[in-house]
Amino acid sequence: MALDTANVLKARGHALQGGAVGFVLLVFSLLSVRIGRIDAALTFLPLIAIYLWPLNATSALSSILIFSLGLGVDVLSGGPVGLWAFVYLFLYGTFRPDLRGPDKSLYAAWISFLGLVGAGVALLIAIGFVFIPGRTGFVALAIQALVVIVAFPPVYLIHNSLQKFFSDEDSAEAGI
Amino acid sequence: MARLGGHNFRRRRIVGRITFVFLIIIAALIFFAGQANDRVLDDTKTQAESATSPVMTYVTMPVRGFENFVTDLRERGRAHAENKRLQAELSRLSDVEARANALAIKLSRFETILNVDVSSGIPEQKIAARAVMENNGPFVRSSLLNAGHSKGIEKGYAVMTVDGLLGHVVRVGQNSARVLRLEDLNSRVSVMSVRSQSRAILTGDNSRNPKLSFLTETSDWTAGDVVITSGDDGVLPPGLPIGYVMPETNGELMVDLYVNDSHVDWVWVYPHDPIKAPETDPIISEESGAETEPQATVTQNPISQSQDAEKQIQQASPVVTDRDEN
Q1: B161-211 pLDDT, tens per residue?
Q2: What is the secondary structure of A23-55 as a DSSP string?
Q3: Disulfide: which of B87, B172, B233, B301 matches B319 by Cβ 3.0-4.6 Å?
Q4: Residues sharing a CB contact under 8 Å with residue B48, sequence separation 6 or more, in sequence order
Q5: Would you give the end-to-end CA distance of chain A in angstroms?
Q6: pLDDT confidence bin for B159, thresholds 50/70/90
Q7: Does residue A75 sit at the B interface (CB-CB below 8 Å)?
Q8: Is B59 in Cβ contact with A30 (below 8 Å)?
Q9: Residue A52 falls in which region: left (phi positive, over 0), alpha (psi -120 to 50) or beta
Q10: Average per-residue pLDDT in chain A?
Q11: Do B41 and A81 count as a contact with CB atoms less than 8 A apart?
Q12: What pLDDT, in 10s, does the model give residues B267-281?
């Protein structure tokens, strides 16, 4: 019973960890960096948090945090409300870490992340085409997808390093 | 997770799935509600923006600092050549300034003689603010300012950078304001050519270069024309610089915005009272409080009368049709 409670708490902790990573990336996603004559908006950055969502996180709390994250992006970016909340949840449901299995290397993770970004872009285009006709900026979409693909390796490496640094070896040995 | 086993694990998994499906339905419902009525969560948005704008001021500082550093480096590289060019420009402008001063005096005399006001319409008062957040997403082009109602900013005010018009305010919080940029799909601004005085509507399409639409057969637009606000909509003040016309592509005239050439950091918000139509702005008699018909008190020359008539026609059908955010 005590072990079960510890596991539940740890799973919730994992979900909160995913939420914290998402929140940090959400703050950075609100920035727009200008490179030459190109506006490199970082709107897609929280997709990295969706991809790196901890394997052992509780499903219910994860869904609530991801929903809040999406709603936060919608409200703060001034875009259509509910759009990112829906997209993030859909991508989380499709690319859940337990469905995909652990990433063997950065390269493998990157390729897998490309799939998630591709699915996200396709979903946004479909939603834009059906529900918000004529309002989709395809160039902006392509640039943002490219920016997040380029940003993935450093974020992945930093995330992994921090995870190793803060990993709880005692509880891992105890089988929690 | 499997090692948790047992009834509790199965129950948690079912709860997790139900929560997931429930939230995805909620997200979809909020999205559809927003499509039906774009005022959904407007207050929440305003409050969230007011709360985040001070934080974003600090978060964006390193980014803006880095951008300014790169710009500085680039500018230092060409400082010598630029200095020589500016010296030549200065000596030329000294002569121009003397002529401008003479013309200003002459104009002032004519204004007094004719009893007309030919001011540019650009408000002299302006409110400084910082664009702390830009959203160049696939569906919206907007900026968030770190100043709001407390600094005197109101909905509809024009927002300028040092280069030109950025857009207009569409939502105001206590300490923040949301700016709908000229590139946004919902942006419609009445503009004119400085050269030919031809009118058009600058229509955003979520690309870098908004296009000129509602061009009449007699309108005269060519590549290189400087585009400014015409003020015909009665919403934005006339004379605000916007950009210049690009060479025609696919039969459409696009405008290269002045704001495209620089980082958006500090901006000025121009307070401006929109011109009300006479039907909605009756004269109130001070003595009786009764409404009276407006009477002409100043004899105007035929040119200004025709301009007024044109303005009234255009006011009857406002050109800034959708000032709400998407």
Answers
A1: 888 899 999 888 888 899 999 988 888 999 999 888 889 999 988 788 899
A2: HHHHHHHT-EEEETTEEEE-TTTHHHHHHT--T
A3: B233
A4: A72, A75, A76
A5: 12
A6: very high
A7: yes
A8: yes
A9: alpha
A10: 81
A11: yes
A12: 999 888 777 777 777
Pick from A132, A123, A136: nearest CA to A90: A123
Phi and psi dihedrals of A166, rounded to 5? -95, 5
B316 pLDDT tier (thresholds 50, 70, 90): very low
Q: Does A64 touch chain B (CB under 8 A)?
A: yes
pLDDT for B166 equals 92
- Mean pLDDT score across all residues of chain B: 77
Which chain B residues contact residue A18 at CB under 8 A?
none
For an interface test with B, give the residue of A23, A32, A141 to mutate (most B CBs within 10 A): A32
- On whether ipTM exceeds 0.85, the answer is no
Distance CA B93, CA B70 (A): 30
Q: d(Cα B284, Cα B300) in Å, to the nearest integer?
A: 23
Q: What is the pTM of this model?
A: 0.64
Secondary structure E strands in chain A:
32-35, 38-41
What is chain B's percent helix, strand, coil content, to nearest 5? 40, 20, 40
The CA-based angle A49-A52-A56, given to 5 degrees, is: 120
Per-window interface: A 81-140 vs B, CB < 8 A: 81-83, 85-86, 89-90, 92-93, 98, 124, 128, 131-132, 134-140
Are the C-beta atoms of A161 and A61 separated by less than 8 Å?
no
Give the range with max mean pLDDT: A157-161, B111-115, B313-317, B319-323.
A157-161
From the candidates B9, B24, B132, B187, which should be mutated to test the interface with A, based on the most A CB atoms within 10 A?
Answer: B24
**Residue B145 CA from chain centroid, whole number:** 12
Average pLDDT over residues A50-78: 84
* φ, ψ of residue B241 in degrees (nearest 5): -70, 140
